[in-house]
Structure formats: structure tokens, C-alpha cells
Write a structure and sequence with these properties.
Mean pLDDT: 97
Strand order of the largest sheet: 1-9-8-5-4-2-3
Number of strands: 13
Radius of gyration: 22 Å
Number of helices: 13
Number of domains: 2
Order of helices and strands: HHEHEHEHEHEEEEEHHHEEEHHHEH
CATH architecture of the largest domain: 3-Layer(aba) Sandwich
Bound molecules: pyridoxal-5'-phosphate
Largest sheet: 7 strands, mixed
CATH class of the largest domain: Alpha Beta
Low-confidence stretches: none
């Protein structure tokens, strides 16, 4: 049972990270009133075009979630039994399930101990002749070190899927995350840096043909008739095609209102991320002299999108991460969370036979990590309160342990 906090909650861990401006809210009403279709219309086309330009990829396909984008990527890769896909275990469950669903074997790679994302070194031992794809997650918003990963993949003819749910607008050596691998999967769910009203996603592709195939799969195979028709109702209102041989299509559509909001938010994504970087840097610098806390290492050339701010706590004399989370919650009213259960330790993955796996960096980080409350537009006084409280709490635990 959670002990009762002695201090009222002062800094919650929020569900919505970026609120809409009044102008963005007005776009919702305006689109509802003026849009002739409410789905699959001009807003979607424009959102996809603007997203493609922003990311610098060949094409973008708007979908209802990042999970849907990952399902499309897994489908387009034509994975199946006998194939292997390498994934991190320290990630949100959606990174893995779409690939597991194909019947391919999931191979869990460890994370780099300091960057806390996969690297060429952690991926390499997982490669076998059966490996068809690697899913790289730019977790917490930090772009993974992609060049060595791309080189490794090219040597073995392996495709790369980037899970960009947490790093929209993140940059790796001048390239936006989501433009580097063969597929990029974005999330606009409520907790992300930008959200299309609670749910939403985007699939980006390196080859234009993959975008066309994804569109044929997105809305149950609906596709325009090839030529002109004398009568619009003959042979029927809509055409149905099989976009990918042997694959039944889905309904993964994003509504026009969501696309309209997405377009507006895309315009301020860079500013949102800039502010988030400033917030993260304020907290990181404020805690730089606290040796028990270590944040993600951000190498030169990696521009962090700071979806979240997580740290490892290496407590002294038996003090644990749970002691720190409890103290911050109970006495300072700051709600931190513990995230990304190594998937092989979950009942879900145990039920599918992955329960025997242990990865040292993944386990160590998860067992000692905490994620601080983080959102767009944290007031300066809250940032100061967080820094002082976290420093104070760690010092108290240090004294109690010595
Ligand atoms: C790393 C990662 N991948 C995928 C997803 C799934 O995103 P969605 O909720 O849009 O399906 C999330 C969402 O939390 C995520 O954090």
C-alpha cells in the first residue's frame, strides 16, 4: 500500500505534456465546421506533405497511433515465422508487439549503460543469418548513435525501423530522427511532445513506394479507380485493392480535425523542443554536483528532444531508488515514476516464452531509474523547487545511509 503523503502533491507527473493554444483550439472548431469529409481529406494530405518536408523523408502516412505505424512497418517488412527482429527490452510495449505478432522471433538487445538506448555494440551479438530487422528506439528523446548501426545493418542486409514516438524533432548529426532508417514511427498520443487530441501517429518512409503501400493498407484497401469513369456510381462508389500480396488491410485512419491540429503543432515543434531542452538543462545543471544521479549521456551531434527526463540513482549505504521516489513523493509532493519495465520481466512476455532473458544494463537501469515530472512550459519556480527538493532528498538519504 502506498504510504500517505505528508505533503500535498505539488508537482504531478502529467498525462498531457503540451496544451493547445487558444488558436490551436479554434482550429478544432473551424475544421469541424468547414471540412467536408472529417476523414481522409485535404488536412490529411497537407499534414503528410508538411511532415515529409519537416522530417526530410520520402513520404509520410498519417495513422491513428504509433502502434499502427509500427504494425504497418512490421507488415511491409513481410516478416514471419523463421525471421528474427532485434528490439530493445527497455521501451514501451508497442515497440515490440507488432513485430512479435508477425510470428518472427523477437531478440532483445541490451542498452548502452550511459545513453540508455541500443548501440551497434549491444546489437551486434544479437545478429544471426535470420535477422531481418532492427527496431531502434530513440528513448526519452535521445537519438541513438545511428551511423554505426546503419553500417552494421548494411553489412548484414538488415532493415532499420526507428521508433520515434519519443523523439519527434530530435536530430542526429544533422538528420531528423525518422529520416535515417527505412521506416520511422511517430506518436501523437497525449503524453508526447505534440499530440493530435490524445491519439495519433505517423509512418515515415525512405522509399516512396513504401508510402503508397502503407496507404493501401491504411483504410481497408480503399483506393481510387485507375481510370476516369462515366458514371460515378458504376461499378460502385469505391474501389478496393490488395496493396500487399497476402496481407489483409487495416483501418488505421487519423481524422481531419486531428490532422489540422497536427499541422499547427508541427509549426511549433522546434520551439517546444527548444524549451524542453532548456528545462532539462536547468535541472541537469542544478543536479550536476549530485554524484548519486546520472542522466543520459548526450554525445556531440545528438540533439535530444527531451520527451522525458530520467536518471539513474546510485544510492549509498543501502539507499535505493524506491527510497528516493518515496521521499520525493511523501515529503516534497513531487511525483516521479518508474518506467519501461524490461519487457521480458512482464507477465505478457513471460506468457510468450521470453521470461528467461536477462540483460545487465537494461536490468540495472530499470531497477535504479526514476523519471521526473516533465512537460512543456514548466514554470521557472517549479523547476527551482524540483532542483532544490531533489538535491535535498538525495542529501537526506546520503546522511541517513552514512
Ligand atoms: C517508445 C514508444 N513506442 C511506441 C509508443 C506507442 O505510441 P501510441 O500510443 O501512439 O501507439 C509509445 C507510446 O507511449 C512509446 O513511448
Amino acid at each position: 500500500m502506498t504510504p500517505i503523503a505528508t505533503t500535498p502533491l505539488k508537482v504531478d507527473f502529467p498525462a498531457v505534456q503540451t496544451r493547445l493554444t487558444a488558436e490551436e483550439e479554434a482550429v478544432v472548431i473551424e475544421t469541424l465546421r468547414s471540412d467536408p469529409t472529417w476523414t481522409q481529406g485535404e488536412e490529411q494530405k497537407a499534414f503528410e506533405k508538411e511532415f515529409t518536408e519537416y522530417i526530410g523523408c520520402a513520404d509520410s502516412v498519417a495513422v491513428c497511433s504509433c502502434t499502427a505505424a509500427l504494425e504497418l512497418a512490421a507488415t511491409l517488412l513481410r516478416l514471419g515465422p523463421g525471421d528474427e527482429v532485434i528490439v530493445p527490452a527497455h521501451t514501451f510495449v508497442s515497440t515490440v508487439v507488432p513485430f512479435a505478432r508477425t510470428g518472427a522471433k523477437v531478440v532483445f538487445a541490451d542498452i548502452d549503460a550511459e545513453m540508455r538506448v541500443v548501440s551497434a555494440e549491444t546489437l551486434k551479438p544479437c545478429i544471426t543469418p535470420k535477422t531481418k530487422a532492427i527496431v531502434v528506439v530513440h528513448l526519452y528523446g535521445l537519438p541513438a548513435d545511428m551511423d554505426p548501426i546503419l553500417e552494421l545493418a548494411a553489412q548484414h542486409g538488415i532493415k532499420i525501423v526507428e521508433d520515434v514516438a519519443q523523439s519527434p524533432g530530435g536530430v542526429y548529426k544533422g538528420r531528423k530522427t525518422g529520416s535515417i532508417g527505412d521506416y520511422g514511427c511517430f506518436s501523437f498520443q497525449n503524453q508526447k511532445n505534440i499530440s493530435t487530441l490524445g491519439e495519433g501517429g505517423m509512418l515515415t518512409v525512405k522509399e516512396a513506394l513504401q508510402g503508397e503501400l502503407a496507404r493501401k493498407l491504411r483504410w481497408m484497401g480503399h483506393w481510387p479507380f485507375a481510370g476516369p469513369r462515366d458514371r460515378y456510381w458504376v461499378p460502385a462508389m469505391g474501389n478496393l485493392v490488395c496493396g500487399v500480396e497476402g496481407v489483409w488491410p487495416f483501418n488505421f485512419c487519423l481524422s481531419e480535425v486531428q490532422c489540422a491540429v497536427g499541422r499547427r503543432l508541427l509549426q511549433r515543434l522546434d520551439a517546444i523542443n527548444e524549451e524542453r531542452r532548456a528545462q532539462a538543462s536547468f535541472i541537469r545543471q542544478g543536479l550536476a554536483s549530485v554524484p548519486e544521479l546520472s542522466f543520459q549521456r548526450v554525445p556531440e551531434g545528438h540533439v535530444h528532444a527531451y520527451h522525458l527526463l530520467s536518471a539513474r540513482y546510485d544510492g549509498l549505504a543501502g539507499k535505493t531508488r524506491n527510497d528516493l521516489v518515496e521521499l520525493l513523493y511523501q515529503e516534497y509532493g513531487i511525483k516521479c515514476v518508474v518506467q519501461y519495465w524490461p519487457l521480458y520481466r512482464s507477465d505478457l512476455f513471460k506468457a510468450f516464452g521470453y521470461g528467461h532473458i536477462h540483460l545487465p544494463n537494461t536490468d540495472r537501469f530499470f531497477d535504479n531509474m526514476l523519471s521526473f515530472p516533465f512537460w512543456s512550459g514548466i514554470p521557472k519556480e517549479t523547476l527551482r523547487y524540483m532542483v532544490e527538493s531533489i538535491r535535498g532528498a538525495v542529501e537526506r538519504l546520503r546522511r541517513a545511509g552514512s
